[in-house]
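input
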Amino acid sequence: MNSYENLRAQAVALRREGLSRRQIRDRLKVSNNDLLNRLVAGEPAPEWTRRPNAKDGLRERARELRREGKTYDQIELELGVSRSSVSLWVRDLPRPPRRTREEASAIARRGWERTLALREEERQRTKAAAKAEIGALSDRELFLIGVGLYWAEGAKSKPYERREAVIFVNSDPDMIRIYLAWLDLLGVERERLRFCVMIHESADVTEAEQYWADLVGASPGAFTKTTLKKHNPKTVRKNVGADYRGCLVVRVRQGADLYRRIEGWWYGIVLEAGSETREECPN
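output
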């Protein structure tokens, strides 16, 4: 037996005793990795040296599902892995019977529901992160928000119809809350406010009136007669159901001077926003 064959025999014996490549290298004083590879060629590594694969559990589960007759689509959906991984893990197992059209439709539906759920999770994460960016509002920030809010949603005087009145109409309760907080900031007394509900006659008018009264915390005396919109059967309305409560009109009595100030504030914002000397927003 030549020296190589003798060295290989020793390496094989050590391998079968359960030694690792490093241990064999140190025991036989072999510094060349190519030579070490040839010496232990064909001998499996001992189990204790095998590094666990993070997907071993998924692989075994995939094989179990395949034996149960699951399709690639079903395994992908349940385990959340790629088709290529499923194929690699189960390709030696027999194929399940061809599924019916109803089964295929059910699988596609569950896949789409899963996609929608993931999209909703992402949507909620984005909204939560954006909400956290706002923090506490200063009085000046609320003031500017209120001016923009009124100019977007409030009544405005026209050159052909001079009506300097402060009237705000909206169906969004959060918009109403912000608007009232803005009026409080401006020092507008709640006694100067008058409210009116505008709603389709086919809705639950009484419930809507109570909802808006509770929201603004006003007495029945602060509300004028509800305005009912005539129902048109030919119109397909989207604003129906239990959440439909019409719109709330908020009017400030003796508000001409306030209206003029709002208009001035708004054009001050427009002028400043268009100024060439305005500092750019920080990155």
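quick obs: Residues 25 and 110 are 54 Å apart (CA to CA).
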